[in-house]
Write a structure and sequence with these properties.
The structure is a single chain. With 198 residues, the chain is α+β, with helices and mostly antiparallel strands. It has one domain (44-197): Jelly Rolls (Sandwich), CATH 2.60.120. The chain is built from three helices and nine strands. The radius of gyration is 34 Å and the shape is elongated. It binds calcium ion (2 copies).
Length: 198
């Protein structure tokens, strides 16, 4: 019984090969499947520490400033996506408020109770972006007031931030010695936009 089975199979194989020979050419196909093209993610975050980043975060709140005071604003920008960042920009959107009623000393010299004066006297002393501990200055904005910089796109020097890397940004502000009583108890609200480009 075993021997017969073997023979039958051998005949069948020969027969099939014969059919293929007679019918057409041998053919062959090589396959390449599952190829993909996709886009990388482009995403930055901002944080007060290098290790934590957010899409939206309040960074600073300075109160009771007096003329001559200086404050440093420091934050970190992280590349949270998978594509390199090669350029960062910052835009400051500045709103001047009187923050309630004018103080008695202010009232004597401030004729615009609906609008604050403080941003005229908040001077950007320095803006730096540091990558690998090496600071790059943006000297074009040094000495300008927040009012002058309101809504202006400030391009930071060209830097490469690879996936997962962080850069440090420092802004130093000074309340000018020329600030007079018209900005007593005034308040400036600063919304900061930080943009990244590939
Ligand atoms: Ca005013
Ligand atoms: Ca005022």
């Amino acid at each position: 019984m075993k021997r017969e089975a073997v023979v039958l199979i051998a005949i069948a194989l020969v027969f099939m090969a014969g059919v293929k020979f007679g019918a057409s050419y041998f053919t062959d196909v090589a396959k390449s499947e599952n190829n993909e093209i996709s886009t990388g993610e482009f995403d930055i975050g901002i944080g007060k520490e290098p290790s934590r980043s957010y899409n939206d975060l309040k960074i600073f709140d300075f109160s009771n400033l007096k003329p001559g005071d200086e404050k440093n604003i420091t934050f970190y920008v992280k590349n949270r996506g998978s594509l390199d960042v090669s350029r960062l920009w910052i835009k400051l959107n500045v709103t001047d408020l009187e923050d309630g009623a004018l103080s008695p000393a202010e009232e004597a010299v401030d004729s615009t109770p609906e609008r604050g004066e403080l941003s005229n006297y908040l001077i950007l002393q320095a803006l730096e972006v540091s990558t690998n501990g090496r600071p790059l200055k943006v000297s074009s904005v040094e000495g300008k007031s927040l009012r002058e910089l309101n809504g202006v796109r400030i391009d930071l020097p060209e830097i490469y931030i690879k996936e997962g890397e962080v850069v440090k940004v420092t802004i130093r502000l000074r309340l000018s010695d020329n600030a007079g009583n018209e900005c007593q108890t005034d308040k400036v609200k600063v919304d900061m936009e930080i943009g990244a480009e590939q």
